[in-house]
């Protein structure tokens, strides 16, 4: 249930209509209150320079003028937003657009324009039914002026913010921050199962050897957006079964793919396994798009895409690629807490109920560096920062397996340089950086034999 809520919240949080809709409702509500509040006494108590309005018609004319101007400002803001999104999609990658759409400053700026427009429209509609004998809506007029002035300054700040947000370094830092938040939130729910799996050594069956009668199959095609492990644990405990899942968040599945196995105790052999299977598939969220809040590798690939586009011949911006490499290196120490590719969930009695495949540090490191290394195979100025990051990470590795994974990536960088870099001096510089990685945790290593 919690994962479903996260998916809905991510959908709403990365839309440009949800926050403006709330502002619109708020603007209309404030207009209803402002029109009906008696404001003569309050206006009389204000200093003489404060504006006062003698008739309802004067307020209507002012409101109409402010409304037309605000509509023009909002159109300009939307046009600027579309230009920024187009530039971002072309230079930084289409998957980074969701970060611009989910930016709270952008959503609140557009919301302030929409809310002010709805305030003025609602005020005009209500004033249209008022006569000359009705009191002049002084508070509504003053509120409209204040909202217009605020919207004017919001427009200036909004354009300034959009200008800064399209800078590659800003995008890299923002996406990197989202990556670290995704890793931290995933660790909150997965750290204990990972430790349990490492201690108990649970294993997963091969999909080809699973008995079809006990197989769990994908309900539909798409990406695994999230798995409600708590819901699965509740189902497994009540039914007294063991669940093995061979998939993880971010993996693409096809309808009827075998994604796991149900093991039933001999005492429950007569139970309806189809009923259990239906309960289990309900806890596995499958959709057409990957979700960054639940899928660490997707958050990684957003940064990788920025680097790959920067390295493309059409853009050729190695400094952006280097900035991505260093930002990935900052996030990798957190990923080292995923020291096992499996997670094990137990019930309150300590009985094993779920064994599931998870993304571990090795898979995350592959997702972070493989494609960048392949795209930068002839660029020593990009391979060198990769080796530097590996040198920093190997000293923080939590297990010997993680150290071996880092050394393997260092050797791949060395072989890539030896094969593709023609200049001997550049090749030797990369080899020296690779050797520093190999020697940091290992006294002797015959790098030439690698």
TrEMBL record:
Pfam families: DUF2254 (PF10011). It comes from the Bacteria. The chain crosses the membrane at residues 12-35, 66-88, 109-127, 139-159. Keywords: Membrane, Transmembrane, Transmembrane helix. This is DUF2254 domain-containing protein. It comes from Thalassospira lucentensis.
